[in-house]
Amino acid sequence: MQSGGIEQADLAIADAAAPARTAAPVKVAGWLSEIADQPQLITLCTAILLSGAVRGDRRLAATGGRMLAAELLATAMKDAIKHRIDRTRPEAVDDGTPYVMEPGDSRDSEHNSFPSGHTAGAIAVASVIAGAYPRARLPAYAAAAAIAFIQIPRSKHYVSDLAAGGVIGGIAGYLATTMGRAGSSAT
Protein backbone atom coordinates (compact mmCIF):
# COMPACT_ATOMS: atom_id res chain seq x y z
CA MET A 1 0.00 0.00 0.00
CA GLN A 2 1.52 3.29 -1.15
CA SER A 3 -0.19 6.44 -0.06
CA GLY A 4 1.76 9.61 -0.66
CA GLY A 5 4.59 11.35 -2.42
CA ILE A 6 7.00 10.95 0.50
CA GLU A 7 6.35 7.23 0.66
CA GLN A 8 6.77 6.89 -3.11
CA ALA A 9 10.03 8.85 -2.95
CA ASP A 10 11.21 6.62 -0.11
CA LEU A 11 10.54 3.52 -2.20
CA ALA A 12 12.24 4.96 -5.29
CA ILE A 13 15.36 5.97 -3.34
CA ALA A 14 15.51 2.59 -1.60
CA ASP A 15 15.14 0.80 -4.94
CA ALA A 16 17.92 2.89 -6.50
CA ALA A 17 20.23 2.31 -3.52
CA ALA A 18 19.53 -1.44 -3.16
CA PRO A 19 22.31 -2.66 -5.49
CA ALA A 20 24.92 -1.04 -3.21
CA ARG A 21 23.84 -3.26 -0.30
CA THR A 22 26.37 -5.98 -1.19
CA ALA A 23 29.29 -3.65 -1.92
CA ALA A 24 32.25 -4.07 0.44
CA PRO A 25 32.44 -0.37 1.46
CA VAL A 26 28.73 -0.38 2.35
CA LYS A 27 29.14 -3.58 4.35
CA VAL A 28 32.12 -2.15 6.26
CA ALA A 29 30.40 1.20 6.91
CA GLY A 30 27.27 -0.70 7.94
CA TRP A 31 29.26 -2.82 10.37
CA LEU A 32 30.79 0.34 11.85
CA SER A 33 27.34 1.92 12.14
CA GLU A 34 26.29 -0.85 14.52
CA ILE A 35 27.93 1.21 17.30
CA ALA A 36 24.57 3.03 17.31
CA ASP A 37 22.54 -0.10 17.99
CA GLN A 38 21.06 0.00 21.49
CA PRO A 39 23.33 -2.48 23.34
CA GLN A 40 26.52 -1.03 21.89
CA LEU A 41 25.50 2.60 22.41
CA ILE A 42 24.35 1.95 25.97
CA THR A 43 27.70 0.26 26.66
CA LEU A 44 29.61 3.20 25.16
CA CYS A 45 27.64 5.78 27.17
CA THR A 46 28.10 3.79 30.36
CA ALA A 47 31.84 3.44 29.70
CA ILE A 48 32.15 7.22 29.27
CA LEU A 49 30.21 7.83 32.48
CA LEU A 50 32.39 5.35 34.41
CA SER A 51 35.59 6.66 32.85
CA GLY A 52 34.73 10.17 34.01
CA ALA A 53 33.86 8.90 37.49
CA VAL A 54 37.08 6.90 37.84
CA ARG A 55 39.21 9.78 36.59
CA GLY A 56 37.40 12.29 38.80
CA ASP A 57 36.32 14.21 35.69
CA ARG A 58 32.86 15.45 36.66
CA ARG A 59 32.20 17.00 33.26
CA LEU A 60 32.96 13.73 31.45
CA ALA A 61 30.95 11.67 33.94
CA ALA A 62 27.98 14.04 33.66
CA THR A 63 28.22 13.95 29.88
CA GLY A 64 28.27 10.15 29.92
CA GLY A 65 25.22 10.16 32.18
CA ARG A 66 23.37 12.55 29.87
CA MET A 67 24.39 10.49 26.85
CA LEU A 68 22.99 7.38 28.51
CA ALA A 69 19.78 9.20 29.46
CA ALA A 70 19.42 10.51 25.90
CA GLU A 71 19.95 7.05 24.40
CA LEU A 72 17.46 5.43 26.77
CA LEU A 73 14.89 8.16 26.11
CA ALA A 74 15.41 7.95 22.34
CA THR A 75 14.97 4.17 22.51
CA ALA A 76 11.75 4.48 24.51
CA MET A 77 10.35 7.07 22.12
CA LYS A 78 11.38 5.05 19.06
CA ASP A 79 9.87 1.86 20.50
CA ALA A 80 6.59 3.63 21.28
CA ILE A 81 6.24 4.40 17.56
CA LYS A 82 7.94 1.33 16.08
CA HIS A 83 5.59 -1.07 17.86
CA ARG A 84 2.53 0.71 16.51
CA ILE A 85 3.51 0.94 12.84
CA ASP A 86 4.40 -1.95 10.57
CA ARG A 87 6.67 -0.95 7.71
CA THR A 88 8.54 -3.41 5.57
CA ARG A 89 12.30 -2.81 5.51
CA PRO A 90 13.83 -2.04 2.11
CA GLU A 91 15.98 -5.20 2.18
CA ALA A 92 12.87 -7.35 2.71
CA VAL A 93 11.11 -5.61 -0.20
CA ASP A 94 14.24 -6.09 -2.33
CA ASP A 95 14.16 -9.78 -1.41
CA GLY A 96 10.52 -10.12 -2.54
CA THR A 97 8.44 -9.40 0.58
CA PRO A 98 5.41 -7.21 -0.25
CA TYR A 99 5.72 -3.63 0.98
CA VAL A 100 3.36 -2.46 3.71
CA MET A 101 3.13 0.60 5.90
CA GLU A 102 0.16 0.49 8.19
CA PRO A 103 -0.84 0.52 11.85
CA GLY A 104 0.28 -2.69 13.49
CA ASP A 105 2.24 -4.31 16.27
CA SER A 106 4.68 -6.64 14.54
CA ARG A 107 7.85 -7.42 16.47
CA ASP A 108 9.42 -8.95 13.35
CA SER A 109 12.50 -6.94 12.34
CA GLU A 110 11.62 -7.10 8.65
CA HIS A 111 8.41 -5.14 9.42
CA ASN A 112 9.93 -2.60 11.86
CA SER A 113 11.59 -0.09 9.60
CA PHE A 114 9.91 3.04 10.98
CA PRO A 115 11.54 4.97 12.66
CA SER A 116 15.30 4.37 12.59
CA GLY A 117 16.61 3.54 16.06
CA HIS A 118 20.23 3.82 14.93
CA THR A 119 19.55 7.38 13.80
CA ALA A 120 17.58 8.28 16.93
CA GLY A 121 20.35 7.05 19.23
CA ALA A 122 23.19 8.54 17.21
CA ILE A 123 21.57 11.98 17.03
CA ALA A 124 20.56 11.90 20.72
CA VAL A 125 24.09 11.10 21.85
CA ALA A 126 25.69 13.54 19.37
CA SER A 127 23.51 16.38 20.63
CA VAL A 128 24.59 15.72 24.22
CA ILE A 129 28.25 15.62 23.20
CA ALA A 130 27.84 18.83 21.20
CA GLY A 131 26.28 20.58 24.18
CA ALA A 132 28.98 19.48 26.61
CA TYR A 133 31.98 19.80 24.30
CA PRO A 134 31.25 22.47 21.65
CA ARG A 135 34.51 21.77 19.81
CA ALA A 136 33.30 18.20 19.26
CA ARG A 137 30.01 19.38 17.73
CA LEU A 138 31.03 18.91 14.09
CA PRO A 139 32.63 15.45 14.49
CA ALA A 140 29.76 14.25 16.70
CA TYR A 141 27.07 15.31 14.25
CA ALA A 142 29.12 14.10 11.25
CA ALA A 143 29.42 10.64 12.83
CA ALA A 144 25.68 10.60 13.60
CA ALA A 145 24.86 11.65 10.03
CA ALA A 146 27.15 8.95 8.61
CA ILE A 147 25.50 6.33 10.84
CA ALA A 148 22.08 7.49 9.65
CA PHE A 149 22.77 7.79 5.94
CA ILE A 150 24.55 4.45 5.54
CA GLN A 151 21.24 2.81 6.46
CA ILE A 152 19.90 3.74 2.99
CA PRO A 153 22.43 1.78 0.87
CA ARG A 154 22.38 -1.00 3.49
CA SER A 155 18.65 -1.31 2.69
CA LYS A 156 17.81 -1.10 6.38
CA HIS A 157 15.74 2.11 6.31
CA TYR A 158 13.95 4.64 4.13
CA VAL A 159 14.73 8.36 4.14
CA SER A 160 11.60 9.16 6.18
CA ASP A 161 12.67 6.54 8.75
CA LEU A 162 15.89 8.52 9.18
CA ALA A 163 14.03 11.82 9.40
CA ALA A 164 11.72 10.49 12.11
CA GLY A 165 14.68 8.97 13.97
CA GLY A 166 16.53 12.28 13.73
CA VAL A 167 13.61 14.19 15.23
CA ILE A 168 13.31 11.64 18.04
CA GLY A 169 17.06 11.81 18.68
CA GLY A 170 17.05 15.61 18.69
CA ILE A 171 14.21 15.72 21.20
CA ALA A 172 15.81 13.06 23.43
CA GLY A 173 19.19 14.80 23.35
CA TYR A 174 17.63 18.16 24.13
CA LEU A 175 15.63 16.76 27.03
CA ALA A 176 18.60 14.88 28.49
CA THR A 177 20.82 17.95 28.21
CA THR A 178 18.20 20.32 29.61
CA MET A 179 17.22 18.04 32.49
CA GLY A 180 20.89 17.36 33.24
CA ARG A 181 21.70 21.06 33.40
CA ALA A 182 18.67 21.77 35.56
CA GLY A 183 19.70 18.96 37.92
CA SER A 184 23.29 20.19 38.18
CA SER A 185 22.25 23.79 38.83
CA ALA A 186 19.91 22.66 41.62
CA THR A 187 22.78 21.12 43.61
Cα distance spanning the termini: 54 Å
Number of domains: 1
Output the structural class.
mainly alpha
Report the portion of residues in β strands: under 5%
Oligomer: single chain
Characterize the main sheet.
Answer: 2 strands, antiparallel
DSSP E strands, number: 2
CATH class: Mainly Alpha
- Report the C-alpha radius of gyration, rounded: 17 Å
Number of helical segments with 4 or more residues: 8
Structure notes:
68% of the residues lie in helices and 3% in strands. The protein has 187 residues and is mostly helical. It has one domain: Vanadium-containing Chloroperoxidase, domain 1, CATH 1.20.144. Strands 1-2 form a two-stranded antiparallel ribbon. The longest helix has 28 residues, at 159-186. The protein is elongated and about 55 Å long. The N and C termini lie far apart (54 Å).
Question: Which features does this protein show?
Answer:
187 residues; mainly alpha; Vanadium-containing Chloroperoxidase, domain 1; two-stranded antiparallel ribbon; 2 strands
How are the elements arranged and paired?
Blueprint lengths: L4 H13 L6 H10 L4 H18 L2 H25 L2 E3 L2 H5 L6 E3 L13 H16 L4 H13 L9 H28 L1
Antiparallel strand pairs: 1-2
